[in-house]
Amino acid sequence: LKMSWFWFYLPLHLLMAACLCHSIKAPTTSSQQSFKTDLFNFYHSLILADGKESTVHLLKDIPKRYYFVLEEGRALAPFTITVTPCDVPIEWSILVHKASASFLGKAARGDHDTQEVSKSQNAPSTVSTIFNYKGNSVETYTGMSSHSALYMLEFLSTERDTHITVYLTTDTTSGHLYPELPTDPRIDVIGIGHTTVTLTWKHSPSVLQHRENIQYCLLVNEKHNYKSLCAAETAIRSSGMKLPPTLALSLSPYLLEPQQVMILSNSELSIINKASSGEVRQICMGTKNTYTVPNLSPSTQYYFDIFVVNLLTNASVAYTGTFARTLEEPEPKVTEMKEGKVIQVVLDGKKQKFYSLQYQARHKKIQFTFQLCRGQVQVHITKNGKTVALENISGLRYFTLKGKLLDTYLVQLRSTEESNSSVKVQVSSHFHKPLFPLLPESLKIKSFSKLRTCNSVTIAWLGTQEESKYCVYKKRIEDDQVWMELRSADRCSGPETRRKSEKVLCKYFYDVNLQRAVTTETIKGLDAGTLYLFDVYLFGPSGIPIRYHSKVVKTRKKC
């Protein structure tokens, strides 16, 4: 059943006359005068399109009216109106003006004259309200239309300026603009963790029928549930950020604002909106009806809304929202440190959690030693709850601290990058028995370009005033392996992790004069035009090695 907008064909004076002449015959009471005014306002209203979702902007306390009339055809036919408030509660109603079938039918076709308008003054007509609603829920009215009825929709917001969406359709045979909800539209919480919540919901019939055009989108926030995607987008905008319309539906990365982060993985689009009131996440996961929400904060209440979205029309409907509180984070496990014992800690870069070590002092003066094995690590040391050291470490680092007997020291370690990091830690009060060897001023290995040949390279490194053992190892690598070899090198590992074929030599040396504590070594038997990775290990009295920074050198191609 198609719409026919008769006012386009009716001259202005005839339309006004038609509206007035079909009012109540004797407008003697105030209610009758109100009906007359309503009818006159049909002319001042806007056209409501059939089969299309329209956005209507409302000013506070100022009613806005839309109307429509139907073509002649079947005497009765169904029509549906869906109204979606996008912010505050509104009032809306449907009024019907039933007049002469012959007049409205002819007017719709443009078959009219002045005599016809005059005669129609005696035609019976009534104005009545057939539906009224107040609230902020998505509401749908379904009724039977008549070709001799003129309908008016009136909308009013009494709280503040707002906007709504309105959808009218008289075509019930070509599918729905809005996806359908299941008979039970609730969202079930089936799992709660410290940082995750697992949700499930019954499939929408639309997903089962039109899988390629329908998808589910999840909204997560810390404030409250939303009854429509339109309301959610309005709330996000009002929190101080710009949210492109139907962002979760359009899946357009170029629409993102600086406050938004988009993550696309495993066919899921996740958009995180940063705001002072907390973050709002929109996650579209295709047609899966079970989802585990990751990366939540412990001991926090979250609200979850599922929207089933028609990708062809951008129309959506909401399941009944739910909420859940994540579990409290358990107290971090604290490992007790023992005097002189070395602990190696591996830190998870993705979780960014602290690893805690505790030590109760048996002497007034103690020393913490940290050897960075891989990655980047932040060290935070407190004494009786007060910070005494906080820094990112590299290589070998000592902290000598003074206090009282039985002072409690807490060491917290965390990786400062996304990849895993590793560090060795020792605490000791015996400064005369160092765990690690005396170190030179620099742990860099130098190569001499002018001394390179097709089958040999010459390297040099600094020593100390203490006689120590140095072992040199080499490894043949390819051009595309350089970055990974240097990046993944474990600076705490010793020669025991190397192949025997990679060992070049071991030697002892020292010099009382640090200016002369330098040694060189020429490594022969190499292949021309080939990359080699060279490592030097320094062994002290305790036997624990210190690895110099790896050096990559390429032999000459031609000599």
Summary, kept brief:
With 559 residues, the protein is mainly beta.
Explain what you see.
The protein is mainly beta and 559 residues long. The chain folds into 4 domains: 45-99 and 126-174, Jelly Rolls (Sandwich), CATH 2.60.120.680; 177-243 and 277-330, Immunoglobulins (Immunoglobulin-like, Sandwich); 334-428, Jelly Rolls (Sandwich), CATH 2.60.120; 445-554, Immunoglobulins (Immunoglobulin-like), CATH 2.60.40.10. The protein is 12% helix and 42% strand. It has 8 helices and 36 strands. The strands form 8 sheets. Strands 12, 13, 14, 15, 17, 18 and 19 form a 7-stranded antiparallel β-sheet that branches. Strands 1-3-8-5-6 form a 5-stranded mixed β-sheet. A 5-stranded mixed β-sheet has the order 20-22-27-24-25, with no helix packed on it. A hairpin with a 6-residue loop joins strand 14 (268-273) and strand 15. Helix 1 runs antiparallel to helix 2 (30-44). The radius of gyration is 39 Å and the shape is elongated. Mean pLDDT is 79; it is low at 1-32, 100-121 and 242-267. This is Protein NDNF. It comes from Podilymbus podiceps. Its main location: secreted. GO terms for molecular function: heparin binding.
